[in-house]
Amino acid sequence: xxxxxxxALTTQQFEYLLxxxxxxxxxxxxxxxxxxxxxxxxxxxxxxxxxxxxxTVFPSLFPRACFEEAWDAQKVYNELYAAIVRDxxxxxxxxxxxxxxxxFIAKLWEVHLAVKKEGYAQNLTLGLxxxxxxxxxxxxxxxxxxxxxxVEFNTIASSFGGLSQRASELxxxxxxxxxxxxxxxxxxxxxxxxxxxxELAQGxxxxxxxxxxxxxxxxxxxRCVIILVQDTERNIFDQKHLEYQxxxxxxxxxxxxxxxxxxDTRVVETEGRRLIYHAPxxxxxxxxxxxxxxxxxxxxxxxxxxxxxxSRLQLERSAAVKxxxxxxxxxxxxxxxxxxxxxxxxHLARFLRNDPHLIERVRRTFTNIYPLDDSPAGLEARSLALxxxxxxxxxxxxxxxxxxxxxxxxxxxxxxQSLPERNWKSYILMEIIEPPTMHNVIYRNGGIQSGEVIGxxxxxxxxxxxxxxxxxPQSNWTAGYLLRTKGSASQEGGVAAGxxxxxxxxxxxx
Length: 510
Description:
single chain; alpha+beta; seven-stranded antiparallel β-sheet
């Protein structure tokens, strides 16, 4: 984009800049717990230590037109996925194709069927979504212009809303205080506002306020929002920003480890399946749970025992508003993305009111995605995936959240050949997005990495709707953005998984 960016730094300038980043990060909660590879549990057994979150020293260049396109498309995507979840018959027809080869998806579906059999106690659903994109530059032509292409759509535990706002604020602070050397690009108007903390918290607050207790009981007990978390969470401060914002708005919030669901909550069967939470430090003060916000429970690794599945069932069958419901969780699987994005797919018209304008806004962000089943499209995809000459243009993705699960390029043929052929249909084959590289400096775990990087943009969306009703969602808006950046040689991009860092956009006209 601009070969003169970022500006060169003297040793003294770089030391001052790094010192400013470290101090601002800790003072404003742009932080994570140190990895045990850096600080062992013997040194920090109580996990008292924190360190600056991984960050680019400079905000990264991003095409303004692509950013605006992603921002404008988010409300359409929110509507699309809410409509998918409301159409249980259609969702079932897709999910059932992979039940025999994906145990995790099958177990999630079993939970849904079990709750459906006795009747759902709550028809209100909250989605805190994030649609992830990369800029694509066609490598076959020098005259290529940047295109926005979707990587994935996240329906559960869409993380880094807290840290993304802090990264934006940090880069703005460094511009405002002249910590950077002069640059024609490093101007505040080129750094978009980013209020993800207040926006995401507002989504949870609206769901909390919309909750209606299934019974009228006197005396009433206090109500709360539950943030469901993993037992050991390095990314705790990202979550804490939302928690503190809700508490500022007068809403009680508690963090509940997934492993303690059965110990600390109960469903009152005779009271419309109200979910009651007993905080271990407040044994005599029960709370009625209005919203369960999942920041855990998205990975198969978290369901290693029957207790975990019983816990998920208890939450799902309760009257609390789920963020997300189990159907919304399932709608975020890669199979759904593939069905929507397969060339000539007819499904967008079904969910977007057959509106050509809305359909085109979504469709133009798709890259080609194929099944690996025995359909005509699947057989074509198998041919592409098994041939090393064509496989180098693709990535193989399972139905999983989090980084580190994908298979790339020429590794695809041998990987598929190592699996039983019946399991292939649990993967999708996605045409690789070819992003432009740029130079930047990454500060991570106290170390510095300088070189070519690529970025991935995530746009957050809030959507609140009632299941079983066809009208438009009650609430639907765009809620901020996340930019994650990694070395150009890295395939994966998850910050928490150890591959990338948090960044912010410096918008440029290309």
